Amino acid sequence: MRRLPLAIPALLLALSSPLQAQDYPAEVSRLMEDPAVQEAIRHIEDTDARTMEDLRELTQIPAPPFMEEERGLRFLEMLQDAGVDSAWIDEEGNVLGLRRGTGSDEVLAISGHLDTVFPEGTDVSIQQRGDTLFAPGIADDTRGLATILAILRAMNETGIETAGDVLFVGTVGEEGVGDLRGMKHLFREGGPRIDYFISVDGTGASGITHQALGSHRYRVTFVGPGGHSWGAFGLVNPHHALGRAIRYFQDGADAYVREAAYRTSYNVGRIGGGTSVNSIPFESWMEIDMRSEGVQTLNEIDAILQGAIQRAVAEENRLRQQGEPLSVEVDMIGDRPSGEIAADHPFVARASAVTRAMGLEPDLGRSSTDSNVPISMGVPAMTIGGGGEGRYAHSLDEWFRNDDGPRGIQRAMLILLSQIGLAQAS
């Protein structure tokens, strides 16, 4: 296994931007030369088998949306066994473990999400073929949880003390209709203090997601009296209205996204309703996902959807020959905020310096993750991978391979330490 370099080449300093050359690579170099940090780096490699045991165990505890409790309880026990000053489960189901610092009142939270996208009853047992582990949710995001435990153990067992507090978290509701409910609870008014936030989500060791991709999601239900296709002909038809709404939405949205100031997307992902081929349905529903890099653009494409829905309802009601008019229910089932932390922000710059110090080029980008919430609030936050390689997330064929896996864990720990700081020797 390749060892992590413990110093930054002089060439790297010369190639860095003026701000980085002056500050962050030098900071990271000093951090990595600290004897306790070097020991912690080695500890992560030497105990990688334990990390893989954690990954196997947690992966095989089902955690469907809104049903994360069993995995959360086991993760709480693991945090306590690894060693935290206090640990608890909050009202939303997030699992938190606090490791106190010695010289600062700042708090950095590092998290993985407990939930998976897979419904209750999905077989989450691991199948191994060669050096590859196959199981739903193994990379997204059980790997994040295992990474957090490995960092906590490395810090505890090598005597690292931090200046600020570190909050180790397993969040709920990251996936799908969970709508970041765990994060929204953490960052509510009156929630725990969090000055910096790292989400470990998925695999790899070079990505830094510091830009949040916002989204709005709706379930739209058209409702009518329903009846026989011949005997009740002339009633409003929810399916007909739904079809119009999709067409009007696409017509308006297509023209809009081609000229929008920020990249924007839209999709009707699910539709349903009706009872038989010869029945006028009493309801018809669809679920829509809209995403945008900009707050205003997301709101504007949302307005296009709302207008298309109301136009479709009005037109169907004009065609009504008998019975009650059509109505519509528009329920928001997802609201993920947009935003970004600047690439030259000290938190992101330190993460980039750590990545380069490990011989990798940082890959800065945008996505929709737990970090959306703090980023939208101006709290320095990012999402990074937990090492190794994984593919086919959100599918039953998802897999993880421990290809240089400790490297991602080491990077996550170094980013954490570079921001929250080591305790000063007395």
The biggest beta sheet is recorded as: 6 strands, mixed
Rg calc: 25 Å
Spans of at least 5 consecutive residues with low confidence:
1-21
- Number of DSSP E strands: 19
What would your notes on this structure say?
By secondary structure, this protein is of the alpha+beta class. It folds into 2 domains: 10-213 and 339-420, Aminopeptidase; 214-336, Alpha-Beta Plaits, CATH 3.30.70.360. The chain contains 13 helices and 19 strands. A 6-stranded mixed beta sheet has the order 1-2-6-3-7-17. α4 (35-46) packs across α7, α6 runs parallel beside α7 (138-157) and α7 (138-157) crosses α13. The longest helix is centred in the C-terminal third of the chain and has 24 residues, at 295-318. Mean pLDDT is 94; it is low at 1-21.
Q: Would you summarize the structure shown here?
A:
This protein has 13 helices and 19 strands.
Main features:
426 residues; alpha+beta; Alpha-Beta Plaits; six-stranded mixed sheet; 13 helices; 19 strands; elongated
What's the SSE blueprint?
Elements lengths: L9 H6 L2 H5 L1 H10 L1 H12 L1 H12 L9 H14 L3 E4 L5 E5 L7 E7 L13 E3 L2 E3 L3 H20 L7 E7 L9 H6 L9 E5 L6 E6 L1 E10 L3 E2 L9 H22 L4 E10 L5 E2 L2 E10 L2 H24 L8 E10 L2 E2 L5 H12 L5 E5 L4 H5 L4 E4 L4 E3 L7 E3 L3 H16 L6
Parallel strand pairs: 3-6, 3-7, 7-17, 8-16
Antiparallel strand pairs: 1-2, 2-6, 4-5, 5-19, 8-15, 9-13, 9-14, 10-12, 11-13, 18-19
Helix pairs in contact: 3-11, 4-7, 4-13, 5-7, 6-7, 7-13, 9-10, 11-13
